[in-house]
Each structure stands twice: as C-alpha cells, then as structure tokens.
C-alpha cells in the first residue's frame, strides 16, 4: 500500500517553477531543507546537491542581500542599466509605468536609436515587474517616443516575448503613435505592496536618540553574556562609529557583555531586536 501525502508549499512552488536555470537553493530551516532535498532528488536525481543549508547569525535575506533588492524592486522608482529607470504609479483605474532614460549617455548614432535601446531594456523590466508585483487590470506603459514604426513594432514583439514567461492571462496592444502601450493582465494573487519609504523620525514620538537609551537599558537587564543587536543600518552606523571609542564599545565595557550589532535593511528606523547566539529573541 502506498500512501500519498499532500505536498508542502515549498515543494509545490518548486514543482511549478523549477527548471534547468536553477543553480542553487539556500534554506535556513532544517526540516524544510530536508524536504526540499528529498523532493528534488525524486524529480531530478542529482539536483539535491544544489540545496544548501544556512545557519548563520545574520538572517538569510540579509546575508544574501535579498532585503535590499526587495526594497529596490518594489519602490516607486525602479533602476535599470546605464542610468535608465522606471516610475510606477498605481491608481484606482489602472497602473501607469513611465520609462525614463535618466542620465544615460547617448552613444548611439541618433536619438531614435538611443530611445530604442532604452525601450528594449524597459520592456524586459516591465514584464519582470508585472510578475513580481502581480499587477492586474489595465497597465499603460509610456515608452520613450520613437518616430519609426518599425522600432515600435520591435518593442511590441519584445514585450510579447518577455510576457510569454508570465503564467497569468494577458493581452498586449501595439504601441500607439504617442508611445503608449496598453495591456491587461489577470491577477493571480493579491497585489504585492511593500513599503519602501519611512516616516521622518523627527515626526515620531520616540526619537532615534531615545531609542539608543532604550536599547542600552534592555541590554543591561539581560543575563546573556553575548547579545546580538539587530537595528536599522543608520542606527548600526551610529552605534559602531569610531575605532577606539564607540557606543558599542562603551556598552561592552559598562555591561561586561559581548555585543554584536547587526544591520538589517528590512527594519524601519526605530525597529530593533535583541537575539542570543542561537537566534532566539531575548
């Protein structure tokens, strides 16, 4: 008798997206690590070798620079190569994407060729952003104006090819004479919105300088001899600034504890956390 169990979410996700382009998978959960290795070995013998287990003190997303990439990818402005960038705005009726060349140096023969180069980059990034954010409904992309009908057709075909990777149903219309491309896309899941802007700390009840005193008081009350302080990168810089003398060194001397300050890109300015050497909150 063979009993089949329901697949866990990680294995179900890999079933849908795993392909030959994968070069490595890093997991920071021991049980999940074993399950993924077992699943990959079952569907593709030898593939389990690419699965790595991470047990470092720094969070995996911070260690792999994922937190910073997430903030960069989900912001209002999305950078591309050579200074070009996108501006993404959301309204009740539609999503609007504006393509900008930025400070890109015009090395092409003329303005038309340069606009084509930027728009080709933009088409690839727009398709990626639609998948990342799962933007559904009507999307209008304002490409850089091109006079050539052939160049507009090239961008249209480029966008169609890039959108072939998108599993959501979609329909794309050719670029108009005004440089606008309209498309509709089915939303697969709730749209992903990640806050990338923070409120001015000066407007908050608790100022950063008060936060330092609060952390020091909490550290002094802990019994652990080694404490990891996770804070926003700006706070980390303030605590560790100085070669011979710093706030962190002063704390270590006053409290007779080993203190490690860990910068966290995902934290807001006044967010902080104390952990022990086993990554447990204290």
Poorly predicted ranges? none
Radius of gyration (CA) equals 24 Å
Helical residues, percent = 25-40%
The sequence of SSEs as H and E is HEHEHHEEEHEHEEHEHHEE
The assigned structural class equals alpha/beta
How many H/I helices?
A: 9
- Tell me the count of domains: 3
Distance between the termini: 48 Å
Strand fraction: 15-25%
- Mean pLDDT, to the nearest integer, reads 84
Shape: globular
CATH topology term of the largest domain:
Aminopeptidase
CATH class type of the largest domain? Alpha Beta
How do the strands line up in the largest sheet? 3-4-5-6-8-7
Task: Tell me what you see in this structure.
The protein is α/β, with parallel strands linked by helices and 282 residues long. The chain folds into three domains: 9-55, no CATH class; 76-185, Aminopeptidase (3-Layer(aba) Sandwich), CATH 3.40.630; 201-275, Ribonuclease E, catalytic domain (Hypothetical Protein Ychn, Chain: A). The chain is 37% helix and 18% strand. It has nine helices and eleven strands. The chain has helices at 9-17, 30-43, 60-63, 66-73, 111-133, 149-163, 208-220, 233-240, 247-255; strands at 25-27, 51-53, 77-79, 85-90, 95-100, 137-142, 170-172, 180-185, 226-231, 258-263, 272-275. The strands form three sheets. Strands 3-4-5-6-8-7 form a six-stranded mixed beta sheet, covered by helices on one side. Strands 10-9-11 form a three-stranded mixed beta sheet, covered by helices on one side. It is globular, with a radius of gyration of 24 Å. The protein starts with 8 loop residues before the first helix and ends in a 7-residue tail after the last strand.
